[in-house]
Amino acid sequence: MRGSREQIHLPIGHSFRVLRWTRNLREIESVLAPGRVARIAGEGTHWHYHGAMELTLFTAGEGTRFVGDRIAPFAAVDVVLLGEKLPHYWHTRGPSAGLSVQWNFPHGHAFWAFPETFAIADMFRKAGRGIQYTGRTAAAISDGLYEIADSGGADRLGLLLRLLALLVNASESDQRFLSARSFALSGAAFHQQAMGEAMRYLLANFRDEIRLGDVLQLARMSKPTFSRQFKKHSGKTFSDFITHIRLQAACRELIETDRSVLEIALSCGFSHVSFFNRIFRRILRCSPTQYRVRERRLSRSAVRVSIPRR
């Protein structure tokens, strides 16, 4: 997770870029025009942020989505709008596929010369918390992203404007904020890299005992500096971040396996099942067993929106 700030390089002759992947988030194609692509290194497999806005569609795959201070499971079809400098990361389980559009229209950009774009500014600001789209809006966004990937030149620019209009006019019932607060990360590259290294370590080792001293050594920081920077970059304290990662893993296993609550608690890094039950009730407002029964029932009865995949 070296270098948590991604530098977005637009292709020559393009005001935004279109990305596509069919296997994983490391192997990305920059779609230049119909039949023309350029291979680039993907950054979505680790915690990072960038100065561009991003609209991402997962057409296949599942795992855990990190947006700002929000940690939650995701599964295709998943449509998310990310604001500038909003830290994010998709931890996928197995293969995934999807499309993404990235653009950067800062204050003073020619984009804002058109009065019709003023309504879009508020939507851009709200995207600082990350927005997930569902229902008919998600289906329409999916179609729009496919059209952009299949087009070029002025047609592609027109399709982007139509897509932005769709986001502005989306029904409130089809959208929800992801992060509890907006982020605008900046600061020393050293801090950004250190936080990336720390988070990678936590995500890889959350099932085991984690010693703060080991993480401080990895980050090469004092405890006060680390605590301050970790909260700034993740939106959570060190202990809360670990707890949420462990709880998210436990929730997934409660739904997908028949293992006992004790087995799941211990395998997800909780040293005592009593503490696991207590923290589970405090955060999720129910017992692990009640959660398993409820989520399995909802999973069986849920009707998912069908989005065409091309």
Notable characteristics:
Arc Repressor Mutant, subunit A, 42% helix, alpha+beta, 20% strand, 2 domains
Q: What topology emerges from the helices and strands here?
A:
Blueprint: E1 17-21, E2 27-33, E3 36-41, E4 53-60, E5 62-67, E6 70-75, E7 78-82, E8 88-92, E9 97-103, H1 118-126, E10 131-133, H2 135-149, H3 153-168, E11 175-177, H4 189-205, H5 212-219, H6 223-234, H7 238-256, H8 261-267, H9 273-284, H10 288-301
Antiparallel strand pairs: 1-2, 1-9, 2-3, 4-7, 4-9, 5-6, 5-8, 7-10, 10-11
Helix pairs in contact: 2-3, 4-5
Number of strands: 11
Class per helix and strand makeup: alpha+beta
Summarize the helix and strand pattern as letters: EEEEEEEEEHEHHEHHHHHHH
Low-confidence stretches: 302-310
Q: What sort of overall outline do the alpha carbons produce when their principal axes are compared?
A: globular
CATH architecture of the largest domain: Sandwich
Strand composition percent: 15-25%
Query: Count of helices?
Result: 10
The termini sit apart by 32 Å
How much helix, percentage-wise, in residues?
A: 40-55%
